[in-house]
């Protein structure tokens, strides 16, 4: 198997509410390829289709037409539960909003992706604790998430994305709600992941991120199409 | 109609189950008509998601079916003092012809829903919904059965007039009777025992053979002998197992063994028989589906488990039935 | 393992909305306890009747005249004695008495003069005409005790006083509450029975299997009579209490329906908060099946807790406190109502029926709404 | 992450409490069956009683097994229903219906 085939999109269209008055054409004939270990930035103004493309790549949604291949497996036609399985094994997500469960505590939030997995409670806990340590959150493990500061919430969200030890990290506008200091922290974490050989896909229009040295490639998007690729 | 709490529970539960299955069937009809795995329309996506709802609904319905089979027998048993001459559940069932229909339907539903769930489980583990059409076609047949069950239950319970004299189970299961059930008791114990052990040994033998070969014929044979085992098993319980348990030469009632007085021995006996027969028929039933590429491996993996389970359950059934025959104080000598 | 973890998550998700869920469990447990109280109470009464009446008369022969129960000629005794398989045959003398002062009904029963004392009586049995033994209810209504006089008005408006020689124990209230026992002679004089008549006739039948045959023979020989077999007595009690509990269950099923609506509403009206949560779960890799399992566990936790609590409450209510909330319903217009301590007869069947009656509607009410929540599009979370 | 243990533990405790109550009922039952029930049976036997004395307001509620279908209307021409006992008490079935049936047979 070629290295090239980690994630591949071929002529992907995505249309929301097809056949209805509020039909939206989000992506048109998008093709791209992402190699393992690469850091790719999707750049473009809001509404250019970045998020739609991320959800297709991340197996959150299925394309209207075209193919999406994850490790040479066509995921476009898989039933939802298989998509979920692939998503759980392969991807970690950092959302624009942190998407934490507000009233639950830190430990629970971090362990969220592990609940439906087949491992013991102790093992789940162990893994959550390890990742808590790594992000310096051990002291706050029983704190409710909505009582944490923005930066801490950000770290909880990242820790949750990494707990399954995913190959690919997908981040959608990760710096949108962060100040400069926290954005730098995030960039630090992302470049560390890059050094560990993880694939990172970021959608952003924040110059601080896409001009950052760890970025391998910038894909420029406009109106649901890929306008150009800038290898940096 | 007798306003009995058990009857209320049965009817409430059956109405709810029927409503659930009706919903499932309507959805299933939509799936049968518009299913297109190649399409990525939102409608198709919704249908795919609905399949998981239907699985849940049927799991619940099946769970209730098992409980309602027990509850039905229990209630029939509790009601027997209301009927002149009725000495156990048999008498209550005789009080209205619909009673036996309900019992048979509930047994059929037990197996039918178990099969549906087996098919569904397998189908859900394959990536391309290979069995979606047969599955939902079967659902269209399962739903009317549940409706029929509800109908017969209502007919049975509304038609129960406590004044009517029923033939008591002594009369029904004695040699003089003419119903099917009395025919079972009429089967003489000695030949029945020979038949019973013969069939069970054959069954276990074929099961072992199944573990060795992957031939389809052996699997069909196992399925057929399992069905035979079911009827021979029930007939033997009526014919001789019951009298060894009750230690009375004329008491053939197949329901009394479910009672506390006999240490609930009926539950393991029926459970092992039903379970063993069910798992015994699965390999034969699924054999034709091995043609489907995505299912072949799944079936082959599950098959070994089914065969093992069937052997274990049938083995336990034999042991449970033989226990009172071999170790009980009661002997049939002099009655034969 | 997976199931335990989803249970764990279900619990913390329930705890996050603890007031809402606690109130749900409370209402649910209340419904269960009402239904269970009814079943426990009626079942215990039924079993008590079956246990206590095992030695009731085999056959009672009443005379029916113009469709009404009438006094029976004692001449019938000899006709009945001629039937094969019949043992002792003797008349019973009893009747009702309305006590205007306390506005209550008593049951008068005439007994043989030389009846031995019973265990559940303080004092002794009436041995001569002017004596009586009374039930607790009568004693309380009249504020009397052993040694006092019981003054009654007979059919000629004469007041006649009886000396109370014994009072039944409270333990036998369910049988004896309204009884006034006097000698047969005393009773016949009091009610002014026509000579040669009795209230009804008790027939002993040697072989219990022959009771219905004997009954048929009596009916054929004396067409104006109505034989009542012991089995019919049991059947009456069985159906009275089944009917009664069934009726009450039907009445209280309104509560069950109301509760189901509450459950449906609770499950269907999922708040934006919960919806968001489910979206997050789906986004981080929970499948529809996992979320349905989560909802299933939530349902199990709520219904199991409510069921167990409800059953316990019902048990305490019925058997430790003698069902104070249900007695008004049972009691009705009876002025004399026995304060009885029920023997706690319970079998698994009762529990099974209660569980099915209460859990099934709840599960049914939550399944479709929870599925609706489970199919939330994970992509929704990406878009915020 | 111990909530499931607490829950399972609590459920077990609840089951235990219920079990103890049932066990208690069993012991009460035993003592009653040894002492009270035989005494009551004896009472029924000697006094030849046929009914429980729960509702004393009318003949058909005081002696359900001795009354017939007409009894409710015999007490008084425009008799009140003896609510609730009368309304939720299935009237005694005519006892001779069974015997006549048997004669017919």
Descriptive labels:
heterotetramer; B: 336 residues; mainly alpha; 11 helices; D: 105 residues; 2 domains; 0% strand; disordered C terminus
Describe the overall structure.
The complex is a heterotetramer of chains A (232), B (336), C (384) and D (105). Chain B has helices spanning 5-34, 42-79, 89-94, 98-125, 132-158, 169-172, 180-186, 189-212, 216-246, 266-286, 293-327. With 336 residues, chain B is mainly α. In chain B, α7 packs across α9 (216-246). In chain B, 46% of the residues are buried. By secondary structure, chain C is α+β, with helices and mostly antiparallel strands. Chain C has helices at 2-16, 18-52, 76-81, 136-142, 173-176, 184-191, 211-221, 230-268, 272-283, 288-320, 327-331, 348-374, 379-383, and strands at 59-65, 68-70, 72-73, 86-99, 104-111, 121-123, 131-134, 149-153, 159-168, 179-183, 197-198, 200-205, 225-229. In chain C, strands 1, 2, 4, 5, 6, 7, 8, 9, 10, 12 and 13 form an 11-stranded mixed β-sheet that branches. In chain C, α1 (2-16) packs across α10 (288-320) and α2 packs antiparallel against α12. Chain C is elongated, with a radius of gyration of 30 Å. Chain D has helices at residues 3-34, 36-47, 59-62, 71-74, 96-104. The longest helix of chain D is centred in the first third of the chain and has 32 residues, at 3-34. Chain D is mainly α. Residues 91-105 of chain D have low confidence and may be disordered. Chains in contact: A-B, A-C, A-D, B-C, B-D, C-D. Chains C and D meet through α1, α2, β1, β5 and α5 of C and α1, α2, α3 and α5 of D.
Helical element count of chain B?
11
Helix content of chain C: 40-55%
Number of helices of chain C: 13
Stretches of chain B where pLDDT is under 50 for at least 5 consecutive residues are 164-183
| Secondary structure tally: strands of chain B | 0
Number of domains of chain C: 2
Q: Structural class given helices, strands, pairing of chain B?
A: mainly alpha
Average pLDDT across residues of chain B? 83
What is the chains' assembly state? heterotetramer
User: Which two chains touch over the largest interface?
Assistant: C-D, 94 and 70 residues
Could you state the order of secondary-structure elements of chain B as H and E? Answer: HHHHHHHHHHH
N-to-C SSE string of chain C, H for helix and E for strand:
HHEEEHEEEEHEEHEHEEHEHHHHHH
Q: Profile the largest sheet of chain C.
A: 11 strands, mixed
Biggest beta-sheet profile of chain B? none
Structural class by sheet pairing and helices of chain C: alpha+beta
- Supply the number of structural domains of chain B: 2
Strand fraction band of chain B? under 5%
Q: How many β strands of chain C by DSSP?
A: 13
Mean pLDDT of chain C: 84
Beginning-to-end CA distance, first to last residue of chain B: 43 Å
Strand content of chain C: 15-25%
